[in-house]
Amino acid sequence: MKIFKGRKRDSQKGMALILAIGLLAVLSILGAVVLDVSTKGLKQTAGDLPRQRAFYAADRAVDYALNDTILAILDGDSGSTTVDLTTTTHKNLILSDDASKGVTLEEGTVKDFGADGETGLPNYIKEIFGISAKGNLFHVNVKTTVHKNTPVEQSVHIDSGVLRVWMSQDDQILITGGKG
């Protein structure tokens, strides 16, 4: 029988330290991946904000171009068939607080091509709304740009034709529709 005189070797000695370091490495890699993905998402979202500002400003300009005040200018005694929306008065109303956020109105016009004339609206529209329906065709052209705090300027351009149909006896607007 052999008697072992010395220290008994523990084969498990240091294994807890190796497991702890390995687990810490895996968690660090996982944390780095999550941080990278969330940073990319934030950058993408921040990049969309200027584009949204430009779009909403252009959309407001189109709505403004078709409001009763602008249409009264086009239908009034001035004989004007085009309204320039880039003048200071119109621009300030369209952009309101967006100008401080770097949004500019680069282009903006609304042109009235006139009433439907002697021939009237197409028959399929008169069938829908009745014989006393009248219409005007408008062309709206708007371009907005965002310059502030963006690495690349963001622009939105809307070029649209809009048909407004109304009843001739009481000027009640039946429909406003467009494509562009």
Description of the structure:
- The protein is an alpha+beta fold and 180 residues long.
- The chain has one domain.
- Helices cover 41% and strands 28% of the residues.
- It has 4 helices and 5 strands.
- Strands 1-2-3-4-5 form a 5-stranded antiparallel sheet.
- The chain is elongated and about 120 Å long.
- The model has no long low-confidence stretch (mean pLDDT 77).
Return the structural class. Answer: alpha+beta
Mean pLDDT across the residues is: 77
What summary fits the major beta sheet? 5 strands, antiparallel
Instruction: Choose one word for the global shape.
Output: elongated
Compute the separation of the termini in Å: 100 Å
H-E order: HHEHEHEEE
Q: Residue ranges: pLDDT <50 for 5 or more in a row?
A: none
Percent range for helical residues? 40-55%
The neighbouring-strand order within the major sheet is 1-2-3-4-5
How many domains is the backbone divided into?
1
What fraction strand? 25-35%
Summarize the structure.
With 180 residues, the chain is α+β, with helices and mostly antiparallel strands. It is built from 4 helices and 5 strands.
Task: Label this structure with key terms.
single chain; 180 residues; alpha+beta; 5-stranded antiparallel sheet
